[in-house]
Amino acid sequence: MLDPTMDPMVDPTAFGYGDLNFSWGDHICAIYDDPGQQMDVVAPFMLQGIRAGQRCVWVSGPSAARRFRDTLTRSGCDVPTLEASGQLVIISDVDFYLKDGLFEPGSSIALARTLLEDGQRHGYSAMRLAGDPSWLQEGALDFDLWEDYEHQVTREIANAPMVILCQYDRRRFPGSQIVTALLTHPIVILGDNVARNPYFVPPPTDAVGPRDIF
């Protein structure tokens, strides 16, 4: 079993994949080509957070959630114990992104805030959140609204003790939407390459959305 208590030898801001060290408030995009590659990125990211005594939150559909639990178990985690303790939180994409069947960016961002604050009350001073937005291709969501959401996330978490990783399946999204993902994330992971994103466009300061919620 992986000991979920803080290991003082673990760098709390090491991503766990490649040699990237993030800053709290970073918003990261990982573009993957298959489920194995997705887990290759997110599993070390979460394992690093578990070892550092941080809250770790995963958001996805059922099949990706099963893969995620199985991957952590194979890595030595006692997943049921981690979930029972509240250090590991696995939330369905429907519950995180939709309210009464509708996507409301402010509600999702507020839920992220609630998860952070609840974790802090339980002794987890910082939080890592990773999400799989593949559900976007299963409905009729206006992708312009999703782009606005990604911009809001970048702006709203900038001063929070949290880092967010968004994982995009290149097989399921058209090229235009992958480009949008690149434009809205300051850090990008493409295969084995991890870098500050030269294509990132800072969010507009007059964007409509919640302000100073963290």
Structure description:
- The protein has 214 residues and is of the alpha/beta class.
- The protein has one domain (27-196): P-loop containing nucleotide triphosphate hydrolases (Rossmann fold, 3-Layer(aba) Sandwich).
- It is 38% helix and 20% strand.
- The protein has 7 helices and 9 strands.
- It has helices spanning 35-51, 62-74, 79-85, 93-97, 105-121, 143-156, 175-183, and strands spanning 27-32, 55-60, 88-92, 98-99, 102-103, 127-131, 162-169, 187-190, 193-196.
- Strands 3-2-6-7-1-8-9 form a 7-stranded mixed sheet, with helices on both faces.
- Strand 6 (127-131), helix 6 and strand 7 form a beta-alpha-beta unit.
- Helix 1 packs across helix 2.
- The longest helix has 17 residues, at 35-51.
- The N and C termini lie far apart (34 Å).
- The relative contact order is 0.20.
What brief labels describe this structure?
about 210 residues; disordered C terminus; alpha/beta; about 40% helix; Rossmann fold; single chain
Summarize the topology:
Blueprint: E1 27-32, H1 35-51, E2 55-60, H2 62-74, H3 79-85, E3 88-92, H4 93-97, E4 98-99, E5 102-103, H5 105-121, E6 127-131, H6 143-156, E7 162-169, H7 175-183, E8 187-190, E9 193-196
Helix pairs in contact: 1-2
CATH superfamily: P-loop containing nucleotide triphosphate hydrolases
Number of domains: 1
The CATH first-level class comes to Alpha Beta
The major beta sheet can be summarized as: 7 strands, mixed
Widest beta sheet: strand line-up: 3-2-6-7-1-8-9
Poorly predicted regions? 207-214
What is the fold named in CATH at topology level? Answer: Rossmann fold
Shape: globular
Q: Report the end-to-end length measured between terminal Cα atoms.
A: 34 Å
CATH second-level architecture: 3-Layer(aba) Sandwich
Number of helices: 7
Which class do the helix and strand fractions yield? Answer: alpha/beta
Strand percentage:
15-25%
> What is the helical fraction, as a range of percent?
25-40%
> What is the average of the pLDDT values?
88
Tell me the radius of gyration. 16 Å
Counted beta strands: 9
